[in-house]
Amino acid sequence: MAKLKIAKYWADCCGGCDVSLLDIDAKILDVAKIADIVFWPIAVDAKYKDLEEMKDKSIDLGFFNGSIHTSEHEHIAQIMREKSKILVAYGSCACSGGIPSLANFTDKESIFEWVYHQGPSNDNPRGAEPGTRAKVPEGVLSLPMLYDKVKRLDEVVEVDYYLPGCPPYYKRVAEVIDVVASGKLPPKGSVVGAKDKALCEECPRERKEKKIKEFVRPQFAKDDGKTCLLEQGIVCMGPATRGGCEARCIRANMPCRGCYGALPEAIDQGAGALSAVASIIDSNDPVVIEKVVNQIVDPAGTFYRFGLPIQRVRS
Amino acid sequence: MGKRYTIDPITRLEGHGKIEIFTDDDGNVLNAYFQVPQLRGFETFCQGRAVEELPRIVTRLCGVCPEAHHLCSAKAVDAVYGVEPPSSAKKLRELMYMAHFVHSHIAHFYALAAADFVVGPHAPVAERNILGVVAKVGLKIGGEVITQRSNAQKVQEIIGGKATHPVCALPGGMSRAITEEERAQIEKWGISAVEFGEFGLELFNDVVLKNKDYVEVIKSDAYSLNCHNMGLVDENNKVNFYDGKVRVVDTKGKELYKYAPKDYLDYVAEHTEQFSYLKFPFLKKIGWKGIVDGQESSVYWATPLSRLNAADGMATPKAQKAYEIFYKALGGKPVKATLATHWARLIELLYSAERWLELARDPEITSTELRADLTGKIPHEGMGILEAPRGTLTHHYLTDEKGMVQKVNLIVGTTNNNAPISLSIKKAAQGLIKKGTKVSEGVLNMVEMAFRAYDPCLSCASHSIPGRAPLVINIRDKNGEILETIKSE
């Protein structure tokens, strides 16, 4: 069998998805046996031009990390789509926008204003700002355009599979590689490397169906180390989030923030989380419930931590 | 007509970058530009968040050094609440961080830098990668590299929940204690990490320092830069990564400043250029003098080399010995050879491993007293500084009285080095590309080596990557038309 051709690209991302592939440790040697990596900026020296010169559909498997925040990200997403037989949205940013999509709470103008002018360490008497075309004495330099909003990958190209997580847990990555090697791929559009059930199913903490009277922020909580965090009044995204990560944050005594994304039947992860937190409040009185829910600070930034752009229905 | 060389994207580094080189009519390099083609806006979108969530949000600035951002943010939120974590919590944070440095420095040296030295700067492209390194040093060592990096990741996972991205630090402390069983495992891995750290320096000595040609390249002017030096030091002016004061030593080795995190705005400012989204930090008291080096310039570097230059020594015995050998071999302080940054990184790797072992054996390390009492504390403003693997990292937060974030300012490791990287690329290009030079792939690799010294890249991945894709450079005229394409073999 001919070796598979694999490509991996990062757009607006942190590199953690690349590390997650390294963290499969010695198994990476198995990947090298079945595949050649033809494009992966963090590790090999292929340039954009080499990618552009590849034949359409000549890449067997394209992994795309990161969300779309510049004209360059969108351009490379389109090329990766053209060149790849299978395109995988790898990690929370490509799947649902991820933490970079918190930028959708603001806009490009506000980001520029703070970063280049108002921020306290700026010394910018000329009021300079980066531009898509900059004249320097030797010629003209260009930069990609920064978009006003951050998009998930499937807002700009068709995506075949979704591998969520921030980053995807290396054990799930290894399993997905085994599936690829076996050739037994699930139907297109599937979420891979994650469970269809809520994170609570794999959480080690004890649930007592206890109701709460107030919410408490993690730094003020007296966590007993055993009981469900929500039942101790600590906001946890577990009930509204897919499992697959083995609840590693919760095992470190910190609440889930939802990086594995919305449950299969839910379109809106934040709405799911809101109904979960409302249902645990010890009252049937809507006024009391509203009062207690209002104790949650920054609900938007908590319930939509990893996916502000996905709240529109995925077509 | 002058020529223009474009490298896009530059590869085998963490993040996005682009290089443009301009020559005059004769083919001598006029100037070179290092451009960063994106801006992510973290400082703006962290506004409105709850401050205790920032350590878990800012990790996504970098998936290669998330522990640096997590812990720098934790120090800033401690300061926002005006609390000091218990000493046991600080030690646990530092233990996780030492394992992080071991992981990061292993990845950078063995997978990325080693090829240029162990295999050689002019070796055929197909061999000049981690596989070539393994072929030269043997499979046994290659396997050991994977094992040691993996152990370091596992220590971070035990303490932090996840190695990428950790979740354990809260305002005033840590979320979870380690058990005695976990401690014993961390200690065991620490012993072998120290041995591996010593091995790295022996390897560098045998392969690089015993080779006259390499030593000549390291000491050459094309790879030297005359910058001021920044680094965090402890109360004895020894290198420290987690805590202390920032010390700045000038190009002649004299202390210019030593400041606490809360005073950073008196010492550092940032300049903006139109051609890059990345700002250019400089020493504020000197003032912006442009992208130039020298004693009169305000450009400083913040790298493993500058950290050694800015300190009086290392706080652990084996690393201290290595530090003394380093300066004896390179003619005293400060060292200005950019490529010596790799050697400095290996000394830091040994220090991190030794410190990891010290902390794993500290009687307090399994303590469950991990949180400061926040009762009655009114959050307001806080700064945190630590050394990220690639340079000094500063986080500065301002909140309302409920701890909701109003302002965030960040000066990130690589950002410090924006001007030095630009200068190093220009100097290497000027030294190597001259009238009549055939710009071969080997020459281009020598230019790339200039920025690689700064780069904490993750290429330990490349140990599994067969071959290496070709490097392409387009030579364009001033109107952007392609005149010639050079492709490596």
What's this model, at a glance?
The complex is a heterodimer of chains A (315) and B (489). Chain A has 315 residues and is α/β, with parallel strands linked by helices.
Summarize the structure in words.
The complex is a heterodimer of chains A (315) and B (489). Chain A starts with a strand and ends in a 12-residue tail after the last helix. Chain A contains eleven helices and nine strands. Chain A is 29% helix and 15% strand. In chain A, strands 2-1-3-5-9 form a five-stranded parallel β-sheet. A two-stranded antiparallel ribbon of chain A has the order 4-8. In chain B, a hairpin with a 5-residue loop joins strand 13 (391-399) and strand 14 (405-411). The longest helix of chain B is centred in the first third of the chain and has 33 residues, at 87-119. The model of chain B is unreliable at 456-479 and 483-489 (pLDDT under 50). The chains are: A alpha/beta (315), B alpha+beta (489).
In terms of topology, how is this protein built?
The complex is a heterodimer of chains A (315) and B (489).
Chain A (H helix, E strand, L loop, with lengths): L3 E7 L5 H7 L5 H7 E5 L8 H6 L5 E7 L2 E3 H13 E7 L1 H5 L11 H11 L14 E4 L2 E4 L3 E6 L9 E3 L6 H13 L65 H4 L17 H11 L6 H8 L5 H5 L12
Parallel strand pairs in A: 1-2, 1-3, 3-5, 5-9
Antiparallel strand pairs in A: 4-8, 6-7
Chain B lengths: L3 E4 L10 E6 L5 E7 L6 H4 L8 H4 L8 H16 L5 H33 L10 H8 L1 H22 L8 E2 L2 E2 L5 H30 L2 H8 L8 E6 L11 E5 L5 E5 L8 E4 L8 E4 L16 E2 L2 H7 L6 H13 L10 H21 L20 E8 L2 E9 L5 E7 L1 H4 L1 H15 L8 H12 L19 E5 L5 E6 L2
Parallel strand pairs in B: 6-11
Antiparallel strand pairs in B: 1-2, 1-15, 2-3, 4-5, 6-7, 7-8, 9-10, 12-13, 13-14, 15-16
Helix pairs in contact in B: 4-5, 4-6, 4-11, 5-6, 6-7, 7-11, 9-11, 10-11, 13-14
